Amino acid sequence: MTAVNILIYLLRHDLRVSDNPVFHHLATVKDHGFTHLLPVYVFPAHQIGISGFIRDGSKSPYPEARSDLGGYWRCGPHRARFLAQSVWELKESLQGLNSDLCLRAGSFDDVLQALLKGFSDKQQKVGAVWMTSEEAVEEKRDERAVSRVCSEVGVDFKLWQDEKYFVDDRDIKLGNAQNLPDVFTTYRKSQEPLRERPRLTLPKPDESSLPAYPDQSSVAAQAEPFEMSTTYDDLESCLLKPVESVLNDVPKLPDGAKSVHLLDGGEIQALNRVGHLIRTGAISSYKDTRNGLSGVDFSTKLSAYLALGCLTARQVHKEMVKFKTARRTRSRRYLAMEPEKTKELGPEGYKGKWKTATKGGLDEVAQTIQRFLSGTTGMGLIDASQRELLHTGYTSNQARQNVASFLTKHLGIDWRYGAEWYECLLVDYDVSSNWSNWQYVAGVGNDPRGEARIFNPVKQAFDYDKDGEYVKTWVPEVRSLERLENVFQAWTASHDELERHGILDNVMVKEPIKKIDFSVEGMPKAGRRPYMRRRGRGGGNTGGNAGTGSGGGPPQGAPGGPNGHAPNPLHHEAHNRQQRPSDPYGQGQYGMGYRGGFGGYRGQQQYRGYRGRGGGGGPRGGRGSYNTGRWNGSYPPQNPYDNSHLASFGQLPTGDVEDAIEAPQFVLQLSHRAGLVTEALHRLDEKNRLDFFHAIVRLARGGKLFGMHLPPHPRVLDLGTGTGIWAIDVSDQLWEGSHEHAIVDGLDLSPIQPRDYLRPGGYLEHVEIGWKFFSDDGTLQPSSSLAIWSEELHRAMRRAGTPLDVDEETQSKLRITGFVDVTESVINLPINTWSDQPNEKKLGTWFNGGLSLAADVMSLAPLTRIERQATGDILKLVRRMKEESCRLSIHGYCKL
C-alpha cells in the first residue's frame, strides 16, 4: 500500500480550475509524488469580517477587519457576496473533478497549524504546502507567516508564479522594482512587444486527474469559536452578517435605478461574460465606450473576476484571438499588465497637509466626509457615482476618477478616506489598482503632472452625461430640473424653480460642499452630426474605391430593388449616389430607414445602399422593415422538433470569410443546388445583419474585398462604414501585405445604435410574450409542472430585477413619451395542437416547438444562479414540463 503524502494548496486570488498552474501541474505530471490534495480557501480575518461564523455568542479572537483611517469594513456586502459566489462555485467545480474545497476562517498560519496537527494526529504525512505568490504588502506578510509554520514542522513550502496577467512576470526581464520607469507610458512601450507572444492558457484538468481528496475524518475541523458553513446560503449569510450596517442610513434606491453589474461571481460566470462580450460585439467597441457611465456593456465588467482570479487576462486574449473580428479591433492593447504599486509607497504616498477627521476642524471635516460618502455633496456627478457605489458595489472608471479628484483636489481631504471606502464597497476591489489609482489622481503617485491634474466634475458631467440621464437616475431629487447645469449643480437653479420642485431646503441646495463656477457657453449642442472612424489598422465596414471611395445607387434588381432578389454583385456598375432607388413598395418614407435592401454589399464601385437617417418608414414602420434583408416573410416549419435541415455557418466553404461575423448568432439552411445561402434565421439587430451580408458578399466574390490593384500605401475611404467590418478587413489585408503605411478612413451619417430612428409619422410595434400559462376549462392545474416551471422562472427573474411579467404600464408609458393612437392586441398562443381551429393548431405546432427548444436555456441561468437550484432538479422539472406541454388533454396557452 502506497504511503499517504498530502499536498495542501492554499488558494487566495486564484479561484479557478482552468488556466491554473497548480491544478494543471498536478493533473499532468505523473511523478509529483502526492497521493492526496487538500485545496483550502481561508477567509482571512484581517481582510473580511468573519464574526458571522460564530454561532454561540463567543467573542472573536481576531480584531475586526476595519480600515486604518476611516474605520470602514475592509470588505463590504457587495464584494462579500461576490466572493461567496466565487468560492462556492470553485468548490462545486472541484467536486465535479472528484475533489473538493476545504473552507476555513481565521488567519493563514492558524488555519495551517490546525490542519497540520490534525494530519499528524492521524499519522498522515503532509509533503508540502503550496500557494500562489502575490505582490501586495499584506499578501507578502501572509506568505511569510505560512513559510514560518512550514519551517517549524519541516514541511516544504513553495510559492507558484501568479499567472493572472496577460504578460507573465518572468518574461518582463526588469530585474527589480527599481528598474521600473516613473511614467507608465514609458513602461508600456518597453513591454508592448511581449503582447505578441503571451504564454498559452492551461486547460481545465480532466475528471479524476487530480490527487484524491483526503479522508474527511483526517481533516481538522474549523477551530472554535467559528463554525464553517456547509451550504451556500449559510456561507453568504455569515459573510454578510457583520457588514449589514454599512448600508444603513443611506439614500434609498431611486425608482428606476438598477445595477450595471448584475453579475454573479465564479469562474463559469466569468467565462460566460467573456463569451457574451464577444458574441454581442461589445468587446469590439470597448475603446469607444469605456468612458461611459451607464449600461451593462459600456465596459467589460471583467475586473471583479480578474481581481479574484476567477479569470486570467490571457484567457480573455485567447477568446479574442479565436474570434478574429474582435482581435482586429486591437482590444488586447488594454490587457497589458500595469506595474504593481502597492499601498506602501513612500510611506503610503502621503505628503502635503491633507484634511482629516483626526486633526483640526474635526466636526466640519467629519461631516464633509460623511456627505461625500453618502452622495449628498450637491455635485451631481459625484453624488450619482457615490450612490451607485453604495447600492450596487460598482461605478464606472470615468466616475471613479472624478470622485477621487473631487475629494482630494477640490475638498483637500486625505485621499486614503476615499481609497478605504472603495476597498469597502467595490465589488471589483483590487489592492494594486485601487491604491495606486487613488495615489495617481491625488497627485502623490506616479503621475508626472502631480497635483496639476484636476478634473472639473461639472465639465466632465457635460462631456460624459450629455443628457443628464446618469445623474437623474441616481439623484432623483434633481430629475424635475430642466437645465443640465441645474441637474449637475442644483444650487444654480432659480429660487422659484427650486421652490416649485420642492427642493429649496435640500441640503445639496442650501449647503453644497463645493460650488464650481462653470459657463455652458460654447458647450456642444446635442444632435446628429457626421460620424467618422479613422484607423491605421482597422476602420469601418462596406466598400468604397481606394482614393475616391465613390458609391452609388442600385440598378433595377439590385438588393432592395423592386424585385427584391440578390444579383451577382460582380456584375454591377457604379451609379451616382444621388440616384436613390424608388420606394420598393410604393409607399412609406424612403429616407427614413432604407439601408440598401437585401444585402448592403460592399466593394469596388458596388452599391451599398442609402443609409437614411431614421427609421419608421415603409408599410411596416420602425426602421424601414419593408427591407427584404429583414426576412419579413414567414417560412413554414419542416418539423419544429427537427433541426437536421439546419447547418452551422462554420460549414460554409468560405475559407476564413466566416471569421468576419459572429458564427454562433446565425443558423443557416444551405441550398445544395446553388451552393448559396437561401434562408437566414438569425438575430435581426442591425450590426449582425450588416456583418452577416458582408461575409456573404466576400463569399460571392471568392473572398476578395476589392477588385482593383492598389498603389503603394493608399488612402481608402469607406463611405457608409456602419459596423466597420469592411474597413477593418481591408486594413488588415493592407498591413499584412506591403502597404504598412496605408490609411483607411470610415465615414458614416450616424452611429448605428438603436435610438433616434423615429420621426413624426413613424410608428413603433412592441411585442411581449407573457410566460404564464392559462386554461379556460380548468385542464391546467396549479400543481402541474407547466404552472410550477412558470412560477419559479417568474420568481427568479423578479428577484434579479428583470421580471418576465408583461408590463401593464406599457400603453401609458408610450403615451407619456409622445405616441398617439396607442392600441393593444392580445393573441393566445396554444401550447400544442389541442385547438380545433386550423390556424390555432398550426400556431400551436410552432409554439410547442419553440417552447421545447427554449425551455432549457431559459431555465438554467435564473434557477441556478438566482434560486440556487441544482442543475439536475431543474432539468427534471423542464423535462416534465415539456412532456405536459405535449398532452392534448391540457388546453393551455400563453398570451402574446
UniProtKB/TrEMBL annotation:
Compositionally biased region (Basic and acidic residues): 191-207
Protein's UniProt keywords contain Transmembrane helix: no
Signal peptide positions on this chain: none
Chain sites annotated for binding FAD: 286, 299-303, 428-430
Domain of life, source organism: Eukaryota
Biased composition (Basic residues): 526-537
Biased composition (Gly residues): 538-563, 588-602, 612-624
Annotated stretches, region: Disordered: 191-220, 520-624
One of the GO BP terms on file: photoreactive repair
UniProtKB keywords: FAD, Flavoprotein
Cofactor: binding details: Binds 1 FAD per subunit.
Family matches, as SUPFAM superfamilies: Cryptochrome/photolyase FAD-binding domain, Cryptochrome/photolyase, N-terminal domain, S-adenosyl-L-methionine-dependent methyltransferases
Cofactor(s) for this UniProt protein: FAD
Keyword Flavoprotein applies: yes
Domain (Photolyase/cryptochrome alpha/beta): residue spans on this chain: 5-165
MF terms in GO: damaged DNA binding; deoxyribodipyrimidine photo-lyase activity; FAD binding
Family: Belongs to the DNA photolyase class-1 family.
PANTHER family attached to this UniProt entry: CRYPTOCHROME, CRYPTOCHROME DASH
Protein name as annotated: Photolyase/cryptochrome alpha/beta domain-containing protein
Species, as recorded: Verticillium longisporum
